[in-house]
Amino acid sequence: MLPPGRVLHVRGCCLNAGATVSAFPLDRDNGWRPDLQALEAAVTPNTRLIAVTNPNNPVGTILTEDEMDAVITAARRVGAWILADEVYRGTEREAPEVTNSFWGRGYHRVVCTGSLSKAFGLPGLRCGWVVAPPHLLQAAWRRHEYATISTSMLSMHLAEAALQPSMRDSLLARNKALIKGGYERLAAWAEASGGLFSVHPPQATALGFVRYHGVPATSLQVAEALRVEASVLVGAGSHFGVEDHLRITHGVQPAMLDEALHRISAVAARMAV
Question: What is the mean pLDDT of the chain?
Answer without folding.
Answer: 95
